[in-house]
Amino acid sequence: MAKILVTWSTWQIWSELVLELRKIYWWDNVVALGNRTKPSDELLNSWPFETADIKDIQKIRDIIEKYEIDTIYHLVSLLSATGEQNPNLAWDVNMWGLKDMLDLAVEYKIKRFFWPSSIAAFWPNTPRINTPQYTPMDPTTMYGVTKVAGELLCQYYHQKYGLDTRSLRYPWIVSRKTLPWGWTTDYAVAIYYDAIQKGEYEFFVNEQTVLPMMYMPDAIKATIDIMQADPEKIKIHTSYNLTAFSFSAKDLEENVRKYIPELKCTYAPDFRQKIADSRPASLDDSAAQKDRGWKADYDLDAMSQDMIENLRKRLS
Prior knowledge:
316 residues; alpha/beta; Rossmann fold; 2 domains; three-stranded parallel sheet; 14 strands; 15% strand; globular
């Protein structure tokens, strides 16, 4: 049975991963590591939970020894908005933090090491349609720069030290448990809340805006699947492209209206339109399909049904 350490476990997306891992590997075999963010009661009460700054190497070393960790999901990262406000901190956390964890993984002979990349590693010279696995990667944000550098660093540690590194380039993730909080794709979550509560929604992108998305259950499934895969099935040690579906804002409006017929939508593009226009509109994840048989469970319609059913229960 794997002994797992999950860093940055208090962020909503990764806390859901922790809870799913605990269903598979049992609660005491999955150690959630947090820092300053208060964990959810669900996460905290399911123990074990530890706190440490990602730069406190000795504390993390102590945790690895205490729980006899053999598998690491290193998920700590400063995202785009924060990273652009403090590029030096973003580099320190995202790159030195990753390298420190890779060094610990080599030192303690960790069996498998996961680190998440992102489509932030692409643009502006990346093909927007069916973005290939191998393509120009010249991001214009520090977050994106650290994702490209991090991919290469993980590959280096695999080639140099034989560390079993694994990674996925996630598209935009949609979660019914995470409220909109300032991302370019917030409309893909906010429309469900406003449709249920108000019967109307105003998009901040235009009708033709298309972006690659993935529903949270598929993101968790893909993460666990790649870590459970036999080593010979992992052919890429930078990061695999990953996707589920792409849809336009208009497609989303029409799909939600299937279940909430009274929904009225307007469009008022703001500064986020420019950001959306610079992102890939669809991804080629054929390498993940070929190497590991990857296939998403949710399409747009299945996601809408699940979002609306569960949000109605919660919001009522």
